[in-house]
């Protein structure tokens, strides 16, 4: 049970939840249908589980992905992001999110957060090993 003694915080409590990562979705999708339902109920069912109502998904790859990737085939210099696609999410992640949404019984609030800009937008042009967002890419990254 979470108790907040200070009512002057001024921030509404939105709920409680966890991440839908590619690695967790790959493992989840290898489970039997019965085990998948058990896992989803244990987290998202308000009566018999934890009652999660929030979910986070990574934009592009993260530290719990099956490799390093971006959303689609975005070419170097594609400031309009014409190659943007969420096709990879349909393979593993979205099926798990859909199962959770059915169990929640209310809207499942989702937050999408990036780990890093695509390498071509960074000063070091690498997924890892540092680098910063190039100033000329700020507008495209914000889109």
Automatic annotation (TrEMBL):
Keywords: Hydrolase, Signal. GO terms for cellular component: membrane. One of its GO terms (molecular function) is glucosylceramidase activity. Coiled coil: none annotated. GO terms for biological process: glucosylceramide catabolic process. Residues 14-134 form the Glycosyl hydrolase family 30 TIM-barrel domain. Pfam families: Glyco_hydro_30 (PF02055). InterPro entries: GH, Glyco_hydro_30, Glyco_hydro_30_TIM-barrel. The keyword Disulfide bond does not apply. Belongs to the glycosyl hydrolase 30 family. This is Glycosyl hydrolase family 30 TIM-barrel domain-containing protein. It comes from Alexandrium andersonii.
């Amino acid at each position: 049970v979470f108790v907040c003694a200070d009512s002057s915080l001024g921030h509404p409590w939105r709920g409680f939840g966890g991440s839908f990562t590619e690695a967790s979705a790959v493992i989840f999708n290898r489970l039997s249908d019965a085990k998948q339902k058990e896992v989803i109920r244990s987290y998202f069912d308000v009566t018999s589980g934890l009652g999660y109502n929030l979910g986070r998904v990574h934009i592009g790859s993260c530290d719990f992905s099956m490799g390093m990737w971006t959303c689609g085939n975005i070419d170097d210099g594609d400031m309009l992001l014409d190659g943007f696609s969420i096709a990879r999410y349909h393979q593993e992640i979205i099926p798990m999110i859909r199962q959770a949404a059915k169990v929640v019984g209310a809207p499942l609030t989702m937050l999408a957060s990036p780990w890093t800009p695509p390498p071509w937008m960074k000063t070091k042009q690498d997924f890892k090993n540092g680098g910063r967002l190039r100033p000329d890419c700020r507008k495209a990254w914000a889109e």
